[in-house]
Design a protein that fits this description.
The structure holds two protein chains of two kinds. By secondary structure, chain A is of the alpha/beta class. Chain A has seven helices and nine strands, in the order βαβαβααβαββββαβα. Chain A has a single domain, classed as 3-Layer(aba) Sandwich (Rossmann fold), CATH 3.40.50.620. Chain A has helices at residues 68-82, 99-109, 122-125, 129-143, 162-170, 223-229, 270-279; strands at residues 9-13, 88-95, 113-118, 147-151, 174-184, 187-194, 197-204, 207-211, 234-237. Chain A has a nine-stranded mixed beta sheet with strand order 7-6-5-8-4-1-2-3-9, sandwiched between helices. In chain A, strand 2 (88-95), helix 2 and strand 3 form a beta-alpha-beta unit. Chain B is α+β, with helices and mostly antiparallel strands. Chain B has a domain at 41-112 and 149-243 and 346-359: FAD/NAD(P)-binding domain (3-Layer(bba) Sandwich). Chain B contains eleven helices and 26 strands. In chain B, strands 1, 2, 8, 9, 10, 13, 19 and 20 form an eight-stranded mixed beta sheet that branches. In chain B, strand 16 and strand 17 (291-301) form a beta hairpin. In chain B, helix 1 (53-68) runs parallel beside helix 3. The longest helix of chain B has 16 residues, at 53-68. Chain B is globular. The two termini of chain B are 38 Å apart. Classes of the chains: A alpha/beta, B alpha+beta. Chain A binds chain B through residues 20, 27-28, 40-41, 43-47, 49, 52, 61-63, 65, 217, 219-220, 222-224, 226-227, and chain B through 40, 42, 78, 82-83, 85-86, 152-153, 156, 168, 170, 173, 191, 194-195, 204-205, 207, 209-210, 255, 291, 334-335, 455-456, 458-460, 462-463, 541, 545, 547-548. Chain A: Its main location: mitochondrion. Chain A: Heterodimer composed of ETFA and ETFB. Identified in a complex that contains ETFA, ETFB and ETFRF1. Interacts with ACADM. Chain A: Belongs to the ETF beta-subunit/FixA family.
Chain lengths: 283, 549
């Protein structure tokens, strides 16, 4: 099922964020990460610590991997290709040299080629959703993409903004928190996970979709595919080449660990409870 | 040894624990009928199992030689950790002789050897006091000229050097199986399958591992490797050597008060809190890596006899010694981990070579035994003189020794009776003959509880997979380990994997295996008195996430 100008590119944009705790209570109370890290494996419980100068967290040596929601986005793109609904899947990531590993994983899962937007050093530390969205928008125009799929949010900063901002910059419709998506003629039917339940919308292509947890179960990147992926192309691009200024409008003042959790107190009766609450000035 | 009553399959009162296919083969399992089991195979010249110091050094040397002789050589390294260095843990004190030969310009290339040893201290501890023992130059425990390193960072750097030379590194893929030719020689390895459910059945995302065939396969899995275990049996590699002796090493990294920081100081101790029948000691290294960091740890010989001994709790209470408190007070613990290590000397080294491959590094338990038992690495490089070589005996071996002065420098000879014939697991005395040890409660500032420590190791595993701590017989833990030894695995595991919990219905206990906590230390495989636990490799990328340990 194709439209006359068939869907050429599904650009699966790998969010360059990542964190340690996915879907489970965070044992280590990770503070919000303000620098850009790329994550792969869900459920890697890495204890993050704040840098001594309190400007951010220590990322040196910490395992970076593909954001779990981005894995789901890549999987969805590849499924579309396997159904022959799209011609080419391009995986994109913004960041330093290490992100090439993440792009390779996407290539191993089945993406056709990759684009590495080089951002490193201080620029990388201050890279935020707005700059990333500008980069993605510029790339989408350059590559003439018809569909952009991203993870709904990165699990290190939980911003949940990049997909929406990208759609706005391109003036494209968006289907966010997708738990299901189907191509119907020239429209995309997206089932969205919302607070009240599920919302089904139809949006015209080209469009931006952000992937939620139940969209699919990503396949493993097997070793033979990792080996084959070494032969697939990853193009290097700089933000300046796309006409994007990555200078941040935000300044991080301070990063702190959450306060130590205090021990609870057991009380015998309801009156005791009320008394204690009054004592603490809560009532 | 007490008679073990074992049943072949779980009875109704023994809940099923083990589901791994190494215990319950898939070709007899109806759930696996019709599942495609063929594996993709690829060829390399050399395949190396384990991306640690031994494996990476071997890879580097091979590529250097190949380049020197203008020969093409495909060298592949498979490593179960998600990134190179993530499963590396050691003191560590490194002697650079071998490195000088391997990569003479290591300094220009940025090898993380930042802390030369400037002060060497050794002491015997009693409960309240510290008795310094002078280290004279010439004594083996003299560390002058060595470096205090974060071995994980060094391994990561070695990985970068290897990649530059064209070595193919594949972290996140574990070697799960040794492959053999029809003539019995080693053909290569197969990586782990993925997508098997906790109950042992195939999931939608099931994928077979791949086969890597090689002319020569090197096994550098570290102490007590799971494939090395199989190779000992297969090729009878241990028939002419003494049984290996082991210890468990536990380690933490601390950021301490700058005023207490003495970069370059290496301290070791023996004595308290261990009694004179238990081998072990401590180390404390002040690292020069920007912030006031110390690496400290404790080693306990795994030939201890009291099943109530907990190496983890000995470590925690050692930190409360008056001589240490001043250093640690006001400091912050940032990492934790543990690993079994080899203790035996030359007499415990097995035969290293077999048709199609060899053992390298700690895998064959190669430690040079000296008057003072310090831990060593034996790195074996071999030169493939022509690429058609398939028989190992035609190669030349170059040996390089990394000598790591880590904990417990004093000779076992001088402290303990020499015991040779018996393996560690059979040292344990029955619980009724031993007194439980009263360990102090952790104070949350200097000493800590087990679970918060395990969290710091960053360890995790895909939860929906068969537990990789497999039991040959599910009924043995309660019938034997609990009944006779009061469940010592609850105490020797440094990650809280093993727990005896009450049965949900009726009376009695069952063993609960929290496989996700495992830090791949291999202690249980060594110390289990029933030798019922067989550690196999979990899905690749699982395990600790050590950062410069």
């Amino acid at each position: 099922m194709h439209r006359s100008s068939e869907v050429k590119h599904v650009a699966s944009y790998l969010n360059t964020r990542g964190c340690e705790c996915f879907g489970q209570p965070c044992e280590s109370h990770c503070p919000v990460l303000t620098d850009r890290t790329i994550h792969v494996q869900l459920k890697t419980f890495i204890k993050i610590r704040v840098k001594p100068d309190r400007t951010g967290v220590v990322t040196d040596g910490v395992k970076h991997s593909m954001n779990p929601f981005c894995e789901i986005a890549v999987e969805e793109a590849i499924k579309l290709k396997e159904k022959k609904l799209v011609k080419e899947v391009v995986a994109v990531s913004c960041g330093p040299q290490q992100v090439q590993e993440t792009i390779r994983t996407a290539l191993a899962m089945g993406a056709d080629r990759g684009i590495h937007v080089e951002v490193s050093g201080k620029d990388y530390e201050t890279l935020g959703p707005l700059q990333v969205s500008k980069i993605f928008a510029a790339l989408a125009k350059k590559e003439q993409a018809d569909l952009i799929i991203l993870g709904k949010q990165a699990i290190d900063d939980d911003c949940n903004q990049t997909g929406q901002m990208t759609a706005a910059l391109l003036d494209w419709p968006q289907g966010t928190f997708a738990s299901e998506m189907t191509l119907e003629a020239d429209k995309l039917k997206v089932v969205r996970e919302v607070d009240g339940g599920l919302e089904t919308i139809k949006i015209k292509l080209p469009a931006v979709v952000t992937a939620d947890l139940r969209l699919n179960t990503p396949r493993y990147a097997t070793l033979p595919n990792i080996m084959k992926a070494k032969k697939k192309k990853i193009a290097n691009v700089k933000p300046a080449d796309l006409g994007v200024d990555v200078c941040s409008r935000l300044e991080v003042l301070k990063v702190d660990e959450p306060p130590q959790r205090q021990a609870g107190v057991k009380v015998e009766t309801v009156d005791d409870l009320v008394g204690k609450l009054k004592e603490a000035g809560r009532v | 040894a007490p008679q073990v009553y074992s049943t072949r399959c779980s009875s109704s009162t023994v809940p099923r624990i083990t589901t791994h296919y190494t215990v319950y083969p898939r070709d007899k399992d109806p759930r696996w009928e019709g599942v495609e089991m063929e594996r993709f195979a690829d060829e390399a010249d050399v395949v190396i199992v384990g991306g640690g110091p031994a494996g990476l050094s071997a890879a580097i040397r091979l590529k250097q030689l190949a380049n020197q002789h203008e020969k093409e050589l495909r060298v592949c390294v498979v490593e179960k950790a998600s990134q190179i260095g993530a499963h590396t843990l050691s003191g560590a004190c490194l002697e650079a002789t071998a490195l000088n030969e391997l990569i003479p310009d290591w300094k220009e290339r940025g090898a993380p050897l930042n802390t030369p040893v400037t002060e060497d201290k050794f002491s015997i501890l009693t409960e309240k006091y510290r008795i310094p023992v002078p280290i004279l130059p010439g004594l083996p425990m003299n560390n002058h000229g060595n470096y205090l390193v974060r071995l994980g960072n060094f391994v990561r750097w070695l990985g970068e050097q290897a990649e530059e030379l064209g070595v193919e590194l594949y972290p996140g893929y574990a070697a799960a199986e040794v492959l053999f030719h029809e003539d019995g020689s080693v053909k290569g390895i197969a990586t782990n399958d993925v997508g098997i459910g906790k109950d042992g059945s195939p999931k939608d995302v099931f994928e077979r591992g791949m086969e890597l065939h090689a002319k020569v396969t090197l096994f550098g899995e570290g102490c007590h490797g799971h494939l090395a275990k199989q190779l000992y049996k297969q090729f009878n590699l241990r028939e002419n050597c003494e049984p290996q002796t082991y210890a468990i090493g536990l380690k933490e990294l601390w950021v301490i008060d700058e005023k207490k920081w003495r970069p370059g100081r290496a301290e070791h101790s023996v004595g308290w809190p261990l009694n004179r029948n238990t081998y072990g000691g401590s180390f404390l290294y002040h690292l020069n890596e920007g912030e006031p960091l110390v690496a400290l740890g404790f080693v306990v010989g795994l030939d201890y006899t009291n099943p109530y001994l907990s190496p983890f709790r000995e470590f925690q209470r050692w930190k409360h010694h008056p001589s240490l408190m001043s250093t640690l007070e006001g400091g912050n613990r940032i990492a934790y981990g543990a690993r079994a290590l080899n203790e035996g000397g030359f007499q415990s080294i097995p035969k290293l070579t077999f048709p199609g491959g060899m053992l390298i590094g700690c895998s064959p338990h190669t430690h040079t035994h000296n008057k003072s038992a310090f831990f060593t690495f034996l790195l074996l490089f071999f030169f493939v003189s022509c690429l058609q070589i398939t028989i190992f005996t035609q190669s030349t071996i170059y040996c390089y020794i990394y000598i790591q002065r880590a904990p417990s420098c004093l000779s076992r000879h001088s402290l303990l009776q020499w015991v040779s014939d018996i393996s560690h697991h059979s040292f344990l005395k029955p619980a009724k003959d031993c007194a439980p040890i009263e360990y102090p409660k952790p104070d949350g500032k200097i000493s800590f509880d087990l679970l918060s420590s395990v969290a710091l190791s960053g360890t995790n595993h895909e939860h929906d997979q068969p537990p990789h701590l497999t039991l040959k017989d599910d009924s043995v833990p309660v019938a034997q380990n609990l009944a006779v030894y009061d469940g010592p695995e609850q105490r020797f595991c440094p990650a809280g994997v093993y727990e005896y919990v009450p049965l949900e219905t009726g009376d009695g206990m069952r063993l609960q295996i929290n496989a996700q906590n495992c830090v791949h230390c291999k202690t249980c495989d060594i110390k289990d008195p029933s030798q019922n636990i067989n550690w196999v490799v979990p899905e690749g990328s699982g395990g600790p996430a050590y950062n410069g340990m």
